[in-house]
Amino acid sequence: MIEAALFGAGRIGKIHAANLARQPGVRLKYVVDVDAESAQALARLHGAAVAGVEQALADPTVRAVVIASSTDTHSDLIVRAAAAGKAIFCEKPVDLTLARAQAAADAVKQAGVLCMIGFQRRYDPTFAAVKARLLAGEIGAPEMLTITSRDPGAPPVSYIQVSGGIFKDMLIHDFDIFRWILDDEAASVYATGSCLVDPAIGAAGDLDCTAVTIRTHGGRLCQINTSRRAAYGYDQRFEILGSDGMLQAENHRPTEVVSHTARSVSHDKPEHFFLERYRAAYAAEIAHFFDAMMNGTPLRTTVHDGLKALELAEAATTSWREKCIVNL
Amino acid sequence: MIEAALFGAGRIGKIHAANLARQPGVRLKYVVDVDAESAQALARLHGAAVAGVEQALADPTVRAVVIASSTDTHSDLIVRAAAAGKAIFCEKPVDLTLARAQAAADAVKQAGVLCMIGFQRRYDPTFAAVKARLLAGEIGAPEMLTITSRDPGAPPVSYIQVSGGIFKDMLIHDFDIFRWILDDEAASVYATGSCLVDPAIGAAGDLDCTAVTIRTHGGRLCQINTSRRAAYGYDQRFEILGSDGMLQAENHRPTEVVSHTARSVSHDKPEHFFLERYRAAYAAEIAHFFDAMMNGTPLRTTVHDGLKALELAEAATTSWREKCIVNL
Amino acid sequence: MIEAALFGAGRIGKIHAANLARQPGVRLKYVVDVDAESAQALARLHGAAVAGVEQALADPTVRAVVIASSTDTHSDLIVRAAAAGKAIFCEKPVDLTLARAQAAADAVKQAGVLCMIGFQRRYDPTFAAVKARLLAGEIGAPEMLTITSRDPGAPPVSYIQVSGGIFKDMLIHDFDIFRWILDDEAASVYATGSCLVDPAIGAAGDLDCTAVTIRTHGGRLCQINTSRRAAYGYDQRFEILGSDGMLQAENHRPTEVVSHTARSVSHDKPEHFFLERYRAAYAAEIAHFFDAMMNGTPLRTTVHDGLKALELAEAATTSWREKCIVNL
Amino acid sequence: MIEAALFGAGRIGKIHAANLARQPGVRLKYVVDVDAESAQALARLHGAAVAGVEQALADPTVRAVVIASSTDTHSDLIVRAAAAGKAIFCEKPVDLTLARAQAAADAVKQAGVLCMIGFQRRYDPTFAAVKARLLAGEIGAPEMLTITSRDPGAPPVSYIQVSGGIFKDMLIHDFDIFRWILDDEAASVYATGSCLVDPAIGAAGDLDCTAVTIRTHGGRLCQINTSRRAAYGYDQRFEILGSDGMLQAENHRPTEVVSHTARSVSHDKPEHFFLERYRAAYAAEIAHFFDAMMNGTPLRTTVHDGLKALELAEAATTSWREKCIVNL
Asked: Which of A39, B222, C319, D233 meets the CB 3.0–4.6 Å disulfide criterion with B145?
């Protein structure tokens, strides 16, 4: 039986707690959150205890930690958990600065512990099938990748202000998809964007629409387009052109109803937001983490992946702010 | 150069005239219609002359006739044109009674002339592709056929009254599709229906919705569902299940626009009605007719096909009226 | 806390056990199965005890029973469970004979207990959305229903022999969908069919392909086509034409990958079989059952629905065997 | 009756000649081509005469010229035809250099003649419907445009060498779509690319895959991805995100057959290449040109549009060659 501690009892913490509860051989022992009430409620739901960071990390029976607290706490918790010899699952991003993220990565390396970053999209059934079929050679050698990544609506400016900016907060996932699908690294990054959705986001020094282009060392091309607003829902698609064809990852829909009326032929909008869209992915990533712990299966999303995605986010931010092409 | 006479200058006559005009080596010489004005207008458009039936059939330079006049004139015109040694293209149905249709078929046989019936659906690119792929063995042996055939809206009762009833007027096409796709003949027919669209149709002794089941000598099953009204447009689909898979013929759309809004994800309704939906088919069938005349290509839709479809329409009418299963 | 007993530890019993385990406030107390090993394994997995029928029904703490044993035991278990005052969830069909099914229904009525029949399709997200949108008036008054229901492959003849025949075993679900979607009862039933998949099924006195037509008292039309084999997977669709449009329930797919190659543009086949396709439905129906127990929510699939579906299955069997139209 | 002269009897010249022949009130008088045999054959097919440039332009009965000759002759022919007072339809691009294209535009302006550039995509039913629905406000204010533009296979290097490069030869259409759909002008252009399809193209100093980003004065974003090779056919799509939704222009297919087999569910690949895909557009643009001549309808694609698209092609070429962001 693996005992685990969960840091963070918010929206994403609750998801992880529920998925944790379904892993055979795993038990949630502690819930840690600065908000005592949230911690209490979640702990009660899963038969766990509330604890502080220190207590949770000091308990030798706790072999795994799941970090789902606010971004600014990630790298510090990774360092401390690594020092305590725990296997670590940490939500993206590793940190908002490369330096601190690197420090976390170093700590993990030194301690020799498992550290998985929660790039859940790699575990999505549709995305994972694209990757598998690509590897199986279905469309030959990959050449061009187009990623569309749009939220249903912009978050409040208070969120934007602590988010680290759209490239670190939102595109961090797309940068990871880029590296994973093309299996290649960026040679140059160009990013531009606008504030077309909410002027307050611009006033906060951020963008709400972006267009990013990456050219890899192998000459492959990747274009990412992102918006904080898609009136029709959560739009999460990508398509990869290869020498022998193309694979597309299309949106998921809540139902397969098709309606024919005098007005049009229509079907459901995409699943509403990330909790619905990536429900299966969140379950699969936690299962993967414990599978890695128990059976030595190699981790598919490591702290190195977290660092590389952050590096791209920084390059994109620089490209946008300084109106230049950033070479890596 | 083949000179041709056209009987009927109405909606469908105009279509045939325009397609005739595009055949290399073919010239429309006469337009015949009881409505002198319509005949005149169409003749003028295509540089043809107006003539009466007698004159057109008596002209030895006229080698082909296209019969697109009202249904009650078809069999008589076939008989006369056959006697005059003309190649005949005739709109469906051959006649509203089997006896007269048989007489027309006999006349054709005796005269040894070409006689093609305008079951244009067999020449539709989508339907023809299904047939070709079925013949190529893509889904193994055909087993079950489902046909959906719905008009956008009910015609006026005045039309219904001279139509011969829904089975001869509307399902005649579906009966032909059944024979063509399954390449088998009916052993039994069951038909039922209702008047759900327009009570005046019921008052006229007809149905506006039907459900027909045919079992073939080979044990294959066919279900046809028909309605005089589909609020979303002209619905023309069929699907054939085989031992190794299924082929579907789906609706055609005017454009390939997809719209995503806060309300739904939608695309165009089906093409509005038969003139749009079967535009390519009408052109292809006339080309086929003259190809048969010029090059001896075997006709794909003969007067025999016209008779067999009519036989099924009669059987279905009997099944419905007498509430019985009709064995053939 | 509601304690429950499960009868049947086979394929479907396991599904129900797992879903039961996820209901808050519900505990699986006993697993009952003639196969001691299966019962033992399933009981162990969920922390339940193995018991006999008598013991399970005699235990006053057991307030609910889930009947997932073989069909021939259903009605008897319903009668005994009703007599013991238990709330009953029973898999379809209620029984293979109307008389015994009626006896079960009578027992339920007399005991005044809840009795839900497992027509899980009504709880499927896509099917339930069609029903809800139909009720909301999206396509006006319902007129014609077409149901396509095909298994990926035929079961062994040993299964066929005890199945009660294709109408009771397979179409029972479609008959329930018909009643639910059209909200109308059958006035006449016509059924025909063939044995095109496996001659052994015919030798066993059964069909493997059927075509059924139902006309309701309100003149609505329903066509059902069924096959024991669809090479492309589990095909579960229906479409309902209304005065103002059409609603289609389309197949579900494992992923939303689209592949473009030199050969074709393709996507996934339908979800493989009923355990995958109706996973959400099975979870939702058990939740509904316990919701009805706890909160008095009216049952959506009662023993009456079970009886009516069986009545249609009998009528269809008669229509087929006696080559007649059966009036109800 | 408008008499017209056609310059160029090649692939695209033949298309225009056939469409010209279908315009009521228009007659093709001359066919001009350096290849006498091609000129002769095409002239014969349409009952026209073969002529030289001089003769055709000197004939006062010729009121319209259609320029479909090689790109290097376009601007010169425009200048001469303008001087002769002819209405001009010219294939894209106006020229390979901005200076000469500007000279042609000046000549048109000075002569006060009609001059339409053959950006046929604007006349495609699907693309035109997107534009119309965008103008009608269906998705609010346009924000982001993504254009996918891929040929089925790379042309021979001999073609590449005289093509002016991928940006002027292939993306010229996409630059026009960008201006037309967003109704805004470029403020900055970033282009990159690779040679992944055919090394000979790289050796000829060109690219075969490109990724272009345009930011408009209004802050709107456009990404274009292009490849000389799509194994699955001619891929011509775009999608426009607006404040209230998204409109997509999807590929057209030859038929609407859907095939379900044990392997996958598939439909047709996109229409094979531009002659098939834009058949309707080529017909509509010629109709539009003569409609403008006869009825004064304002031209939808003027020589100004030709210049602006060329300007973008030059900017993209510079951006790529000098690895910089080009501000306009």
From this structure: B222
